[in-house]
Backbone:
């Protein structure tokens, strides 16, 4: 036994080769709050990894006349003035690989879930130039979120960047989790990047994903609130580097940044400590570039370049619904649309609290399946008119029949779009519900029975409108035969439902 | 106003003293000390002197060499290292310092500016330790 150990060790030592070459070495001049100022290191590059005498890693961010500013990515309490710092001639990179699926990693790609080492064979730099125009193609395949309000009104396509924005406690993370849960069997790998969140929230989320079987295709990258700001700053870049690894293999990836407001705050902290000049709201001048270079890495590649994609759902937390603050406006302008969540709607019981008027998807409609387009075509307009009429109707009592009908339809639409958390609905079921709603079959169903009607109808349709459902699944559109079958099923079900 | 760096002061001192007589140089240096005192920059004198040294070294094409070994090097070996350094850095003059540190166990550590060539046993053993931890 001991001979075997010695033999193995001997082999490993024999395989070890030392390359002797000149190294660039500097000295620590100052250490404070996760930042080190070092002298020397004359040829070091911005973004280059450096190692301190105790094995700690840092990244060069500031190149000044006599010193370099380094952010320390681990415990900085052991670094002292005068310590040696070595340049590595490598831009900061993180390990990437298939083995990371199902794991919880820190911002440097190391596992933190207590399930042992992650065996990866390659590493990717965290900062990379986004894919060029030649490699890309338009968004034309849908990402089914399983949330009716989103799939019908604000559709998301593979390769799109759709912002989820709203105040605290409005269900932003809930939308992200529901979307991940709904990717089961959709041939999608999910990366959830948690930035500055409480560990308890992360644990809850992980448990929820495990219960839903979503960890089989999900990777969580976390930089907790107790960790240095430097890790919060690099976590999204780590996440996207992992996502790019899978995209380069032709796979579709969904990445969620929860949330970029905290990311901007972490970057502000670092920038102020590095004495970079503060700008609006004390954010540094390059805070737009911070997010634009990250979100630009979302793309859909054309067939020649593997055909993979990265769909991005960044989250931004607003203060008192102010979407005109600095970071929200920046990210709104970078992304291809936004899902706006409102506190008022949330407390009125409209959940998910999506404000359809402020929400938009700029490229997603081309990815929406034909059947959904057909049933949801007028829904957004109907809802907008309903909101307007609802406000007016509060002042007057006598309303004409057309207005009354429009109000009733609107109320039913709002009711149909309500959806409990962790219960995503598959697209063909959404089509059945919205067909019944927009074709007026629900107009005479009492408002308080809409949910009951909806669930009953879906069950009934699954037994009696099989052709319609299979056509929607396979051909993404129904035929006349299928439509007739569904119409009959809805009419039969409604008669039974209303007579009971 | 732009911050005055030690390098700026060193450059000014060098330009003011260049080609001047010893008496004039002494006067300039005295004035410099007064200015530094007035501007409360005397605390930076260490860095100013370092910067001045660098400027002079650059002008005179001098290479400063620091060699650390576990045992005292023979005169021949010292000369060999100095000669190699002179060729590598294309310097006219080499100013060398030799130190002995037993903890290095063996090998040589050569420092020129912020470039370091470390062939000491201590460094090699540290690298081996890191390699074995990683391969585990």
Residues:
């Amino acid at each position: 036994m001991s001979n075997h150990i010695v033999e193995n060790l001997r082999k490993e030592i024999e395989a070890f080769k030392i390359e002797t070459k000149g190294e660039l070495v500097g000295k620590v001049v100052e250490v404070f709050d996760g930042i080190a100022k070092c002298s020397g290191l004359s040829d070091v590059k911005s973004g280059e990894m450096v190692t301190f005498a105790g094995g700690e890693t840092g990244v060069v961010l500031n190149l000044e006349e006599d010193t370099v500013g380094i952010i320390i990515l681990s415990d900085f309490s052991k670094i002292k003035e005068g310590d040696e710092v070595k340049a590595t001639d490598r831009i900061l990179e993180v390990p990437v690989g298939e083995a990371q699926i199902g794991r919880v990693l820190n911002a440097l790609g190391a596992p933190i879930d207590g399930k042992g080492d992650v065996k990866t064979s390659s590493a990717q730099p965290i900062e990379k130039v986004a894919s060029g125009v030649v490699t890309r193609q338009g968004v034309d395949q849908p990402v089914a979120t399983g949330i009716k309000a989103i799939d019908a009104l604000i559709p998301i396509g593979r390769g799109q960047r759709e912002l989820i924005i709203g105040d605290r406690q409005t269900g932003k993370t809930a939308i992200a989790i529901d979307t991940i849960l709904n990717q089961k069997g959709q041939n999608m790998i999910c990366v959830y990047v948690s930035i500055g969140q409480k560990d308890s929230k992360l644990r809850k989320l992980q448990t929820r994903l495990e219960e839903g079987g979503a960890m089989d295709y999900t990777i969580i990258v976390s930089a907790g609130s107790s960790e240095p700001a430097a890790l919060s700053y690099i976590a999204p870049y780590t996440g996207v580097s992992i996502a790019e690894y899978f995209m380069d293999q032709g796979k579709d990836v969904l990445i969620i940044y929860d949330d970029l407001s905290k990311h901007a705050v972490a970057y502000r902290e670092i920038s102020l400590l590095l004495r970079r000049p503060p700008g609006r709201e004390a954010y540094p001048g390059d805070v737009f570039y911070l997010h634009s270079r990250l979100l630009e890495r979302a793309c859909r590649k054309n067939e020649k370049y593997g055909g993979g994609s990265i769909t991005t759902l960044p989250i931004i937390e607003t203060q008192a619904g102010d979407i005109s603050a600095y970071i929200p406006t920046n990210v709104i302008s970078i992304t291809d649309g936004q899902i706006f969540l409102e506190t008022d709607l949330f407390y009125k019981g409209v959940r998910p609290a999506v404000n359809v008027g402020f929400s938009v998807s700029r490229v997603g409609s081309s990815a929406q399946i034909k059947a959904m387009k057909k049933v949801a075509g007028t829904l957004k307009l109907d809802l907008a008119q309903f909101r307007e009429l609802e406000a007016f109707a509060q002042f007057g009592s006598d309303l004409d029949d057309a207005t009354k009908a429009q109000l009733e339809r609107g109320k039913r639409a709002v009711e149909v779009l309500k959806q409990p958390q962790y219960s995503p609905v598959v697209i063909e079921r959404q089509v059945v519900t919205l067909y019944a709603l927009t074709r007026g079959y629900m107009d005479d169903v009492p408002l308080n029975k809409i949910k009951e009607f909806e669930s009953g109808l879906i069950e009934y349709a699954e037994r009696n409108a099989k052709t319609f459902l299979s056509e929607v699944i396979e051909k993404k559109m129904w035929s006349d035969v299928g439509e007739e079958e569904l119409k009959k099923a809805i009419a039969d079900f409604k008669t039974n439902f209303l007579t009971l | 106003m732009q911050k005055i760096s030690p390098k700026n002061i060193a450059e000014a001192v060098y330009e003011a003293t260049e080609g001047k007589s010893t008496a004039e140089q002494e006067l300039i240096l005295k004035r410099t000390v007064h200015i530094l005192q007035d501007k409360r920059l005397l605390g930076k004198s260490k860095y100013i002197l370092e910067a001045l040294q660098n400027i002079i070294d650059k002008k005179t094409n001098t290479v400063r060499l620091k060699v650390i070994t576990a045992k005292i090097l023979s005169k021949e070996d010292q000369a060999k290292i100095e000669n190699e350094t002179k060729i590598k850095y294309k310097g006219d003059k080499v100013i060398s310092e030799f130190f002995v540190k037993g903890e290095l166990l063996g090998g040589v550590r050569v420092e020129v500016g912020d470039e370091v060539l470390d062939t000491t046993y201590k460094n090699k053993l540290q690298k081996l330790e890191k390699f074995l931890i990683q391969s585990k």
About this structure: Residues 6-58 of chain B form one domain. Helices of chain B lie at 6-17, 22-38, 45-60, 75-88, 121-135.
